[in-house]
Amino acid sequence: DRDNTTPTPTNNNNNNMPEEAEETQYFDHVVICSGVNGRPVLPPMPGQDAFAGRILHSGYLQDASTQLAGQRVLLVGLGESGSDLALQVSKVASSACALTRSGAGYIIPRYFAGKVTDLDTSRIHHSLPRWMGGGFALKFKNALEDLYLCPETDDLLVLRKAGELNARRGLPWQRRFGTKNTAFVEAMVHHNLQYREGTVTGFSNGHTVHFSDGTSFDSDVILCCTGFSPAFPYLEPGVEAALRNPRKLFKHMLLPDAGNLSLALVGFVRPALGSIPPLAEQQARYLSLLIQGLRPLLSPACMHEVIERDTVRDLQQYPCDAPRLGALTDYLIFLTDMAELIGCQPPLWRLCLTHPRTWYKVVFGPLNNTHYRLAGPGADFSQASAALARIQTVPLPVSLYQACLASCCKLLAFCGLSQFGLVGL
Fold it and tell me: What is the value of pTM for the model shown?
């Protein structure tokens, strides 16, 4: 009894057309916006044919409380959906264990002291050199937040455990994929979820799963929270293979050797921290300018050069995650690169002199695409500044400290120490 095959989709034909009816149309440009979650990924596990239980991909789990109640469940993979499912499963299963190959990413709570942690995705915070994430300078900033935000209202046991797991990997938040979710940590602390780091090495006795760390777990169900890969079954095999890894495309959107805009992707980019829609919007704006002839299409050689530079940077910045996540990239760096291509970088110096309140929200408020509607194609300064005025920021002492830190980095970079260079400032 295995659920490790893709179910046959039902026919949801809202136009009452016969299934066999076909229609051919011709277009100058085809833009695929279906996202990176196309085909469920089921990892091969040595000896899995000897497993007597069920193997199920999380994409086909409808209700953990009815499908998994009272069972022994092994969850493989711990991204954000895996973290959510770990908590749901651990509440109803007789026992549960989470297995992750390279750790759960850098764990960030969705809320801190009653405020959304998106407040911390500010331009000034993300502009700092990527190597500074685990140092004293940013640890002091975290201490300031603790002082002024009073996290005593949060579950300190969960926060403390999340901190231990983050420290175990030895990489700061700028160098891991962000798991913006502490649900699986809550499951560990309060619902007896077991946690393992490693891989499946084999099976025995029908239900015993063995791990690379030498431990084992008796399981009735293996729930694979292992994500999805892009899928383009409607394209020719050669084209589909070329699009499968977005990192091999120019800005995750254009085939470098095509020489035209007949086919493009939008939304096949995944920031380590932040969200996909702002990046997809920037891609769509750039593609629109290209199609209208308002921006030149770069030569294949230039595209390959940019692809190589971006690939090296992503693989170096995210050594644990980028090799297996082809869409993964840095949030602010990608936004900044796309803004350069579009011509919509926020005019920070002009804003500082003429609209200081808007400047403050752009620099110290959460990153969002309103920043890129202040100038350039498609700009609407009055609406953008009005939207920014409603955005919250971190406490003023934290902002002042970040300003001092960024200013020091700017000065050191000006003196020739390029490792202190800022992004987007």
Answer: 0.87
Exposure of 312 in the CB half-sphere (CA atoms within 13 A): 5
3-state secondary structure of 133: coil
Neighbours of 16 (CB within 10 A): 5
Tell me the chain's radius of gyration from C-alpha atoms.
24
Amino acid at 203: F
What 8-state DSSP symbol labels residue 122?
A: B
Give the pLDDT confidence of 177-227 residue by residue, as tens digits.
Answer: 888 889 999 999 999 999 999 999 999 999 999 999 999 999 999 999 998
- Give residue 141's Cα distance to chain centre: 24
**Residue 225 and residue 79 in contact, taking contact as beta carbons nearer than 8 Å:** yes
Nearest Cα residue to 57 out of 81, 33, 88, 92 = 81
What distances in angstroms separate CA 116 from CA 108, 113, 156, 187, one per listed residue? 11, 8, 17, 21
DSSP H helical ranges for 273-379: 276-291, 300-317, 331-342, 348-354, 356-364
- Which letter, b or e, does each residue of 19-35 get, where b requires 16 or more Cβ atoms within 10 Å of its Cβ? eeeeeeeeeeeebbeeb
